[in-house]
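## retry 2 of 3
previous attempt timed out at serialization; input unchanged, resubmitting
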Amino acid sequence: SLIFFFLMIRRPPRSTLSSSSAASDVYKRQIVCLVLMAALVLIYNLRRKQVNWCSDSLVSITIGVVLGATLHFALPDHESDFQFDEPIFFYALLPPIIFNAGFTMRRKNFFINMGTILAFAVLGTTISTTVIALGSYAYSHLDSSALDASDPLECLLFATLISAIDPVATLATFEHVGANPMLYNLVFGESVLNDAVCVVMFQALMSVGSSVVWSAGPFWHTLGSFCEIMLGSLGCGVLIGLGSAFVLLRTDNLRFEQYELPFLLLSAYSAYLLAECLGMSGITAIFFCGIIMAHYSYHNVCRESQVSALRISSTLAFLCENFVFVYLGLSLFTFQLEWRPGFIAVALVLCLLGRALHVFTLSWAANRFRPTNRQITPAMQVMLWFAGLRGAIAFALALNMSSTPNKNVVVTTTLFIVLVSTLVLGAAVEPLLHSFQLTQRDVEVVVLGEGLELSEQGEVESPHQEVDSHFNPRMAASVLETPPVPPRPGGMRSRWNNFDQRFMRGLFGGSGASLASQYDIVDPEGQFQAEEEKEENLASSAAGDREDIDVGRAVAVITGDGRSFL
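## retry succeeded, writing output
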């Protein structure tokens, strides 16, 4: 890749394109493709040799640093051609990553830990932001060249963006070594909601100006903006997700299946764009749109489209993640950086301190309400603290920060913290997991019937989960957490199950299996088998002599609300 890079840079561009700048853009894209291909080959060999401590993001960042150093020392005139582009990041690279997180998420495991995840994502982010903001503001009085002491908003913006965690390296290591499922679910759940919270907080602060710090009126205005953006973004995602399910349920997917997948993907992206057009958070919108689509839209398309949707979503997210980390490594040499070693050291300590304060405090509080068999142990708390890596979202927010005299200082500090946390802390995850004995392997899966599986800890997996766990390690790593007790009659889960079955399924489709039945693991009287045989008979009679019909999907639709529509 480096040899080809030199040849392409040195050789005058010859292209059928109308301008030399367009031809140069083609060369740059070719170089990026070659770099990503080299990263994939290297990652593959590391995985084949089970070098789990070296995560995918670490490999991509290292390759980006090597390429950036080559540009800086050998071809300084071309440094500006490879700078980090915020619009490309926010509108091309970030949406696939966030959508895949919501679309392939284990919804049961996520909502089992919903209270703890919300506490970490909202209260924890607030605690971390407060600690970093106060520490940065105090340091600004000692070194005015780092941050402006007369403008506390600058400290608040820096604290908000640097609180955005992106533990891609940690989650990748969790997947490869088989980390404790509850630990994985907590880290994953917090990370996706934390990003949304930080982006919304950043937007709210940018909208009110510096007076927010010193008066009560702007404070309540900021809080109101936060709630407005969060709820509006949630509404955009849910609206688009339900709309796509409504349309897909009424399509003839046996004859026009080639149109399902494009419509599904474009609907998800439109949720992101709609939220951005309305001044909301596209991250929040597309994440919840992915959850709604996985619950309804996914089950309204044919089997081939289901498999294709999951594979394309996972592949795009993987490529975008590695692309982003390559550019982060490049930015170390291609961006105009202003180094303030004292402030960088203080900011790094503040990040660790704020993370420790919110993890250990909120874990102690959460354990007061969690059952004894699902307590967050001290070893898990240390890993949660260690998993608070910073990533591309923090760097992108720093680039989008309003123009201030110290913007380059903030960008430099953020980039350094991102690289150090990914390269150093990310590489130490595997040894810590083994030392704390937080890994498990050799899980046996018992086949119960067509489309249903039972993990060794007794959790029934849906057909959606069965398909994607074969090729999506993010989902396979989180399937084993101890299931909750059956929904309590009259409780929130039971009421939602009844509402979903009575009203939502008829309008928006979705999985035909009753949500309550997934907890009924033990079947001493053979009721499970009888129901399965009944559903197969219904599917056979509905299908008739048509051999090309998807029987599994026919069963799902018929058992959803008792009506037969294929």
